[in-house]
Amino acid sequence: MFPAKSRTDSGVGRFDWLSITFVLGAVLLCYYLLPLVSLVASQPPDVVLRRITQPDIVSATTTSIVSASTSALVATVFGLPLAYWLARADGQIKTVVTALVVLPLVLPPIVSGMVLLTIVGPETLVGRLAAANGLPLTRSVAGVVLAQTFVSSPFVVVTAKAAFESVDRSLEYASRSLGKSRFTTFRRVTLPLAWPGILAGVTLAFARSIGEFGATIMLAYYPRTMPVQIWVSFTTLGLDNAFPAAVVLVGIAVATLVVLNALGQNPLE
Questions:
Q1: Whole-model pTM above 0.85?
Q2: Alpha helices per DSSP H over the chain
């Protein structure tokens, strides 16, 4: 005879552990969802549409999209080689370099801006030389790009590194054994296989750039990006006037999730 199942084993008369985790997690999910629903429903759509077509919002949106695209491009051009090196290197130096890459992710954004000002600020050697040659690195689009690249480029490096590490090394060895160079192997074998993960990292970098506030406002209060415009609207005209630009940013965030889902990538895994 088999022993009868206890009430604990059968789950009869009480929630099983999976149900408890769902209930507890649902509280956090509601905390994520309800503010977003409240934001979208706070004003009539016609009011929001009319507000987002005003010159200040259009200018901020244009600046954000252009600068975020540029930042994502810069992060990709310089981040992919670093990610590939980290994926294939060994030793203590790899650990040190990885820590340096991750550092901007853990720094408070306002501190990131302060750190950058010590290098490219108007009173620094680099800042003076750039301004003398007609390219000021603060209060300019260049300053926005510098701030955004600093805080968003780690997403490209970390995600691309994971994508490169997921590529079967035996395929690279087979390519090399056929006489192909390391660069040709990277271009024809490694990069195509890792590309979905890389693109996920670039998408995250773009989204992080377009939502950057702390470092950006330190380097370039003008031209205003959407986060800066939201802050200005909130502090001068109140919460209602800050909603339209916030809705635009929420839309971009949702679009980012759609792209990541289409790629079938979870960069945080």
A1: no
A2: 7-10, 17-41, 45-52, 55-88, 92-106, 109-120, 125-132, 141-165, 169-177, 182-185, 191-210, 214-219, 226-237, 239-263
Domains annotated on the chain, with CATH: 53-263 (1.10.3720.10)
Res. 124 pLDDT band, cuts 50 70 90: very high
Residue scoring higher pLDDT (86 or 258): 86
CB 149 within 8 A of CB 120: no
Sequence-separated contacts (24+) of 39-47 with Cβ below 8 Å: 39/243, 39/246, 39/247, 39/250, 40/247, 40/250, 42/240, 42/243, 43/240, 43/243, 43/244
- Give 154-183 pLDDT, tens digit per residue: 999 999 999 999 998 889 889 888 888 888
Tokens of 228: 């800066």
Closest CA to 71 of 139, 148, 160: 148
60-65 long-range contacts (CB < 8 A, ≥24 apart) are 60/223, 60/224, 60/225, 60/226, 60/228, 60/229, 60/245, 61/226, 61/245, 61/248, 63/141, 63/144, 63/223, 63/224, 63/225, 63/226, 64/210, 64/225, 64/226, 64/227, 65/210
Chain position carrying tokens 């949106």? 61
pLDDT of residue 268: 45
Give the span between the Cα atoms of 262 and 254, in whole angstroms.
Answer: 12
From CA 121, how far away is CA 98, in angstroms rounded?
Answer: 27
